[in-house]
Design a protein that fits this description.
The chain has about 350 residues and is α+β, with helices and mostly antiparallel strands. It has helices spanning about 5-10, 15-20, 35-45, 50-55, 60-75, 80-110, 120-130, 190-235, 240-265, 275-300, 305-335; strands at about 135-145, 150-160, 165-175, 180-185. Helix 8 packs antiparallel against helix 9 (about 240-265) and helix 10 (about 275-300) packs antiparallel against helix 11.
Length: about 350
């Protein structure tokens, strides 16, 4: 991971301010917005928290971007009451989350490492906002507002892997009472989140469609195998060696083989982050079904009750997980990329 991308992992929001530090224009003086942008990088490199906070108004950036994230992750098809409920819940978490982000950023600036207690929450936030997958491209322009000499704008260009294209963040700087320029906000963070959600929805739909085709095709084979199982049993009894041999062959050459092929095909799919839980469930189901088929086939040979019991337990576990899989899949179809990340 390169240094600028690593800096981004400090905070999904403050990363943009830090990324601005890569700007390499000729600096004409300390009282310019260009100087403020350059100072960000130097402050992080030198672990100088005082200099960092001279040019980055982190509270303003976090506060402004927090509202944008809440709006960005609110479902477009929710009712106004539902949206209000999401906003109210998010507001309850505002202070502890912002404090957590600031603590993680402080830790990184001072030591070059994350606060271990913050790793999980920061990682989750970055994944949800997509800022764990961007590469800094540069700054297109830093310009003072012609209508307000105390305000400037920088266009920070990043490449986001999921979008597979560049995105330009509009970063705002303001001159404070000490005549110093500070990065204070990111104007279009919500636009970025919404655009990313749309891409993720397409990716998730593709996964759901492709995996559904695989599962449907293999389910037909299993249904045929179950019918064949009944036909074999109707032709004799489990006390007959030839019946047991036929069932063993069916389990190994058809059922087990099919579950192995299903697992292999599913594993080759591109799984979006929001579908990881569903994919993991499906992999576990395949493993349990494969194990159950192996145990059943073994029982046809050893006639040991423990082997039969093991096959039944794995089959029951697979059926339980399949119920969870169906429920999760249906929720994801309805909520799409907003379900979980």
């Amino acid at each position: 991971m390169d240094r600028k991308l690593k800096l981004g992992i400090v905070s999904g929001i403050a990363a943009l301010a830090i990324a601005c530090g890569g700007y390499n224009l000729l600096i004409s003086g300390k009282d310019t917005p260009n100087y403020a942008i350059k100072t960000v990088e130097k402050a992080v490199e030198n672990h100088n928290k005082a200099d960092f906070y001279k040019v980055v108004n982190l509270e303003s950036i976090l506060d402004d971007s927090y509202s944008s994230i809440v709006e960005g992750v609110t479902d477009a098809d929710q009712t106004e009451d539902e949206k209000a409920a999401v906003r109210n819940f998010a507001e309850m978490l505002r202070e502890p989350l912002l404090l957590s982000l600031k603590a993680a950023i402080d830790s990184y600036i001072e030591t070059g490492n994350f606060n271990k207690e913050e790793n999980a929450s920061i990682k989750t936030l970055l994944e949800r906002t997509g800022l764990d997958k961007f590469k800094y491209r540069g700054v297109e322009v830093v310009a003072i507002n012609p209508k307000n000499s105390n305000e400037a704008a920088a266009k920070v260009i990043v490449y986001q892997e999921e979008l597979a294209q560049d995105f330009i963040f509009n970063v705002i700087l303001r001159r404070n009472s000490n005549d110093e320029w500070q990065i204070v906000s990111i104007q279009n963070f919500q636009e970025f989140v919404i655009k990313l959600k749309a891409v993720r929805r397409v990716q998730l739909d593709k996964y759901l469609e492709q995996s559904a085709e695989i599962i449907s095709r293999h389910d037909e084979i299993i249904l045929d195998a179950e019918e064949k199982y009944r036909e074999i049993l109707e032709s004799g009894t489990l006390g007959q060696d030839n019946i047991r041999e036929e069932l063993k062959t069916l389990m190994l050459d058809v059922v087990k083989k099919d579950w192995e092929e299903r697992k292999q095909e599913l594993s080759k799919l591109e799984v979006p982050p929001s579908a990881r839980t569903l994919q993991n469930l499906r992999m576990k189901i395949c493993d349990l079904e494969i194990g159950s088929a192996e145990d059943f086939a073994q029982w046809m040979t050893d006639k040991d009750a423990a082997t039969s019991k093991s096959a039944e337990i794995k089959k029951t576990q697979a059926n339980t997980l399949r119920t969870e899989e169906d429920a999760l899949s249906n929720r994801m179809i309805n909520k799409g990329a907003d379900y979980e990340y």
